[in-house]
From TrEMBL:
Family the UniProt entry places it in: In the N-terminal section; belongs to the aspartokinase family.
Keywords attached to this entry: Amino-acid biosynthesis, ATP-binding, Kinase, Lysine biosynthesis, Metal-binding, Methionine biosynthesis, Multifunctional enzyme, NAD, NADP, Nucleotide-binding, Oxidoreductase, Sodium, Threonine biosynthesis, Transferase
Catalyzed reaction equations: L-homoserine + NADP(+) = L-aspartate 4-semialdehyde + NADPH + H(+); L-aspartate + ATP = 4-phospho-L-aspartate + ADP
Pfam family, any one: NAD_binding_3
Role description: Bifunctional aspartate kinase and homoserine dehydrogenase that catalyzes the first and the third steps toward the synthesis of lysine, methionine and threonine from aspartate.
Required co-factors: a metal cation
ACT domain segment(s): 400-478
Protein name: Bifunctional aspartate kinase/homoserine dehydrogenase I
Length: 815
């Protein structure tokens, strides 16, 4: 004989019940089959709600009852043909009338006892099993209904009654030994006490009913049919990448369900485990999928970590006090008090010190635990030997589970470092003595991020998902998005990086999509977005709380740069081409670098110097490998290089500047380039990245612009001054040409001092042949003494800048 259990969703409506029938027909052809059914999905909750409303004198319970009635009658009408309906419907109505009377009772006395509640909530299964059996019979199955209250006997701890296995096993053996029907339909969840009063086996208890019966009759197998294709590596509703585990041991399944894998009610395993009956979890809506097989041993070849589960709504309870050291039997009393108060302990921290004991309980039990403990240790508390109990709420547990974890080193290290990198604060840790689970107490708000982080770490073959929050979609931003769109597939395959742009913002609008914004269509989507704001954007990033988050600033805006601190503080990495932060006062620059280190969140700005050229990265690598920078010499302005490459005795200075501006090589205000400010910022950043404390005011700037041009207040006036000072510029050219030199705007850093200015470059110098808008940097170091390390190439332009930002993001991916 086989036992099949169908859960609430599987029997939620007529359409689903037809699917159940197909599965039952298939199974019962060969052998007798017992079917355990849950209440129609959601009905138990409705019954609980109606009871609470009635007992708090709220007449709304009648509406809930009406809804329950409609649901059952409608389902019966859909399943059973009109000619056969009347007897079935009148039976349902009779049961519902009793239910109504019970609820009325609760309403009249304004109270509900656990006993009455059990009687009421059991109606869900009683009704569903009755309707399903009638349907099976009408469909020609040799089927019979059997009330589980006549099979399963319990004590009278209502709400979660304890099974009397001896009596239950006898009753089951007697009944199933003699029953002649091919299909037996049994309500799950309900049972009865020795006195014959209805009891229930706890929420989710239909699984348990099925296991109790399967064990009692030595069934060949127990099948749990539900709405997912097995026991998953993590709750599939929270972790999209989770997948069904093909084969798992009883112990592993028990740990996973104990720590919240709702797909199996935790007590279910015990009865079948002792008989070695395999459990198969299958999907009613995809019956051909393999599902999960639970047996004594898992197939040992699998991964060390089998699954990740979590329990929401946990509270930590701590008992502390200097006087605890001397008092004998504290722990014993502590746990006795909780046991008497019927508080179940979900989590015990292993390293309870002599001064304190700390445990985790379901938040619903926290107040009960506090009251009981404060009372239990009242005497010691009045003597001030023990402090009043401390309760911390809004916590959750995440747990890694696997039989083979004990033979693998470093798993907990990986677990905590992955969580730490993502700013998941860990409040308490416990490792089961069996080493079958490692669990951590974290903030409730971090559950989704923690599960996804751990799943990525242990199950996704090192595919790392990067979540980008992009601000600024101008020239650079637009190119950047196009590059991501183009490279996504390659990166996933080759670098195992899954890059998603989760947010976009320009100066007016912003959009968010947790599953990744469609980059083919981002412009339209952004146009239709909501009003943006730096704070609103940041709040949303925080609210989403995704793992591996990166804030990408493609603006040149100071106020945006001022928000980096917030992101780094939350362990969100920052990548930017905006020079403001890295060239701001040294105190601020170093503060950001420190935050980055403290919160394990990279702060990268490679594109601040030389666009996409790997200048800062090379510098960092030199220093990390123990080299020392002695001198930096560089041409760092693509725009100035363009200007001085094109300015000669046949051209006018102001025309060349205009051309550079028209080509997009200068800042919108060309004075920023020509005055040397932009180059000062760049050499400042290089000096700082080489380890020097320096500020912009300390940089010497030998301006080549006449004072009159420097003093202008508009772009127009600036150009006018260039025209007016034609002779000044021609002289600059002629002076250089007469010495056979070219003009280059050079930045230099040596002996802790930085300066920028126009220089005469002779023919044999590496700068002489610098073309177009190229940049060049010479690093003289303790290792590169005679010949410097040279980096040269295109140092301006949206495309190369975008690819530099991209490179920083890949660096974070490999971090
Ligand atoms: P039923 O009504 O069939 O008893 P449940 O709702 O009790 O179904 O259990 C199935 C649900 O368990 C799934 O829909 C899923 O949301 C949840 N769940 C939580 N953790 C897991 C897990 N690790 N694997 C599969 N399902 C899980
Ligand atoms: N119907 C009960 C509940 O919702 C039992 C079950 O479905 O397993 O908790
Ligand atoms: Mg269930």
């Amino acid at each position: 004989m086989k036992v099949l259990k169908f859960g609430g969703t599987s029997v939620a409506n007529a359409e689903n019940i037809e699917k159940v029938k197909d599965i039952v027909v298939n199974n019962s052809k060969e052998e007798k089959t017992t079917i355990i059914v849950s209440a129609f999905g959601g009905v138990t909750d409705m019954l609980v709600k109606a009871s609470l409303l009635a007992s708090s004198l709220d007449e709304d319970y009648k509406n809930v009852l009406e809804e329950i009635e409609e649901r059952h009658i409608k389902t019966a009408q859909e399943l059973i043909s009109i000619n056969n309906q009347s007897k079935v419907i009148s039976n349902i109505k009779r049961e519902l009338n009793v239910l109504e009377t019970l609820l009325e009772g609760a309403f009249l006395i304004g109270e509900i006892t656990p006993k009455l509640l059990d009687k009421i909530v059991g109606y869900g299964e009683l009704l569903s099993s009755f309707i399903i059996n009638e349907y099976f019979v009408k469909e020609g199955l040799e089927s019979v209904h059997k009330d589980s209250r006549l099979l399963i006997k319990t004590d009278d701890s209502f709400g979660k009654a304890i099974v009397d296995f001896k009596t239950t096993n006898e009753l089951c053996e007697n009944y199933f030994g003699t029953v002649s029907y091919q299909v037996i339909v049994v309500p799950g969840f309900v049972a009865s006490s020795a006195k014959g009063e209805s009891t229930t086996l706890g929420r989710g208890g239909s699984d348990y009913t099925a296991a109790i019966i399967a064990a009692a009759i030595n069934s060949d197998a127990l099948e749990i049919w539900t709405d997912v294709s097995g026991m998953y590596t993590a709750n599939p509703k929270l972790v999209k990448q989770a997948f069904a585990i093909p084969h798992i041991s009883y112990q592993e399944a028990m740990e996973l369900s104990h720590f919240g894998a709702k797909v199996l009610y935790p007590p279910t395993i015990q009865p079948v485990l002792s008989k070695g009956i395999p459990i198969h979890i299958k999907n009613t809506f995809a019956p051909n999928e393999e599902g999960t097989l639970i047996t004594k041993n898992n197939n040992g070849k699998a991964r060390a970590v089998r699954g990740i589960s979590h329990v929401e709504s946990i509270s930590l309870i701590s008992l502390e006090g200097s006087g605890m050291v001397g008092i004998p039997g504290i722990s014993k009393r502590f746990f006795e008090v909780l046991s008497e108060a019927k508080v179940s302990v979900v989590f015990i921290t292993q390293a309870s010190s002599e001064h304190s004991i700390c445990i985790g309980v379901a938040s619903a039990d926290a107040e009960k635990a506090r009251t009981a403990l404060n009372k239990g240790f009242e005497y010691e508390m009045t003597l001030k030997k023990i402090n009043p109990v401390i309760v911390e709420d809004d916590l959750a547990i995440v747990a890694l589970v696997g039989d083979n974890m004990k033979s693998h080193q470093g798993l907990s290290g990986r677990m905590f470092s992955a969580l730490g990198k993502n700013n998941v604060n860990i409040r308490a840790i416990a490792q089961g003595a069996s080493e079958r689970n490692i669990s951590a107490v974290i903030n409730k708000n971090d559950v989704k991020k923690a599960l996804n982080t751990l799943h990525e770490q242990f199950f996704e073959d090192n595919i790392k998902q990067l979540n980008l929050f992009v601000m600024g979609v101008g020239n650079v931003g637009e190119k950047f998005l196009a590059q991501i769109e183009k490279q996504r597939k390659f990166l996933k395959k080759q670098l195992k990086l899954n890059i998603r742009v989760v947010a976009l913002s320009n100066s007016r609008k912003m959009i968010f999509n947790e599953n990744g914004i469609d980059l083919k269509n981002w412009k339209t989507l952004l146009d239709e977005g909501e009003k943006t704001g730096l704070e609103a954007f940041y709040d949303k990033v925080k609210e989403l709380n995704l793992r591996n988050s990166i804030f990408v600033d493609n603006t040149a805006n100071e106020v945006v740069a001022n928000t980096y601190e917030n992101y780094l503080n939350d362990s969100i990495s920052v990548v930017t081409c905006n020079k403001i932060a890295a060239s701001s006062p040294y105190k601020n620059y170093i503060h950001l670098k420190e935050l980055s280190r403290q919160y394990n969140a990279p702060f990268l700005f490679e594109t601040n110097v030389g666009a996409g050229l790997p200048i800062i990265d090379t510098l960092k690598n030199l220093i990390a490998s123990g080299d020392k920078i002695t001198k930096i010499q560089a041409v760092l302005s693509g725009s100035l290089n363009f200007v001085f490459n094109n300015f000669n005795d046949k051209t006018d200075f102001h025309e060349v500047v205009k051309e550079a501006q028209d080509e997009g090589y200068t800042e919108p205000d060309p004075k920023i380039d020509l005055s040397g400010i932009d180059v000062m910022r760049k050499i400042l950043i290089l000096a700082r990245e080489s380890g020097h404390e320096i500020d912009i005011e300390e940089i010497e700037n030998e301006a080549f612009l006449p004072q009159e041009s420097l003093d202008t207040n508009s772009v127009e006036d600036f150009y006018k001054s260039l025209v007016k000072n034609k002779a000044h510029f021609d002289k600059i050219y002629n002076d250089a040409a007469s010495k056979d030199c070219r003009l280059k705007y050079v930045a230099q850093f040596e002996d802790g001092k930085a300066k920028v200015g126009l220089q005469h470059i002779p023919k044999d110098h590496p700068f002489y042949n610098l073309e177009g808008k190229d940049n060049i940097v010479l690093f003289f170091t303790e290792r590169y003494t005679e010949q410097p390390l040279i980096i040269k190439g295109a140092g301006a332009g949206a495309d190369v800048t975008a690819s530099g930002i991209f490179a920083d993001i890949i660096r974070i991916g490999n971090f």
